[in-house]
Specification:
- By secondary structure, the chain is mostly helical.
- Helix content is 41%, strand content 8%.
- The chain is built from 7 helices and 3 strands.
- The chain has helices at residues 2-14, 33-37, 48-65, 88-98, 106-127, 173-187, 209-214; strands spanning 25-30, 69-74, 138-143.
- Strands 1-2-3 form a 3-stranded parallel beta sheet, with helices on both faces.
- Helix 1 runs parallel beside helix 3 and helix 3 packs parallel to helix 5 (106-127).
Length: 218
């Protein structure tokens, strides 16, 4: 993750469309689902602490090297939730991409849910610690709209597959549009009172100068 952060800084520096020192920059970081998908194979390498340490190392590179920057840190979703998407194709992709989180008995699912919640909780604690708020022109804000997001249902009460790509794991364009509104609206909400689930069909919240500035960490 630190290598990706360095690459991002390098690309911004070399982009002629960006005034690197003076332009305000918005970076959004969403990562962790693949770590959770491999957790059962190496629960030390993919422990909540290791995950959060890796995220913070990348964020501190951005803090050191990106002036005038706001980072949205999107909390990881509850991965086993996509397991409600069933069928031969979905089952095959889930087994291929994320066998640690799928087809779990109740005991293992409870354990996996606890690990996911630790990912979310520990990352939020570190983001709120203030260690990324040491510069007047840089901050990171935890956006938790995926923490308790559930797979949307159809009118018949069945999982709505149209929010997902053919692999039954990643989002479709419809799912990305819904997530984008969830992220934007999280940005408009105060720290401590941000929604923790998306609501399909939500409208975009409109910012004002006073309203938005109040919701930044620094």
């Amino acid at each position: 993750m630190t290598l990706q952060a360095e690459r991002l800084v390098k690309k911004m520096r070399s982009d002629p469309a960006i005034d690197f020192q003076n332009d305000w920059k918005l970076v959004t970081l969403l990562i962790g689902a693949n770590d959770l998908c491999d957790w059962c194979k190496n629960n030390r390498l993919y422990s909540p602490k290791a995950y959060v340490d890796n995220v913070m190392a990348a964020l501190k590179i951005l803090q050191q090297k990106l002036p005038r920057t706001l980072v949205n840190v999107v909390g990881v979703l509850n991965v086993p939730e996509v397991g409600v998407l069933r069928g031969p194709v979905c089952d095959a992709f889930h087994l291929l991409f994320c066998d640690c989180a799928m087809f779990l008995n109740n005991k293992d699912k409870a354990k996996f849910t606890k690990v996911t919640q630790d990912y979310q909780r520990l990352l939020e604690t570190r983001i709120k610690s203030g260690e990324l708020d040491l510069k007047p022109d840089f901050t990171a804000v935890l956006q938790p709209f995926l923490h308790k997001t559930r797979v949307p249902l159809t009118m018949k009460g069945e999982p709505d597959i149209t929010y997902f790509s053919p692999d039954c794991f990643h989002l479709s364009s419809k799912g990305h549009a819904t997530a984008a509104i969830g992220l934007w609206n999280n940005m408009m909400e105060p720290v401590g009172t941000k929604k923790t689930a998306w609501v399909p069909g939500s409208r975009l919240s409109c910012p004002t100068r006073v309203r938005y500035c109040r919701y930044l960490s620094s």
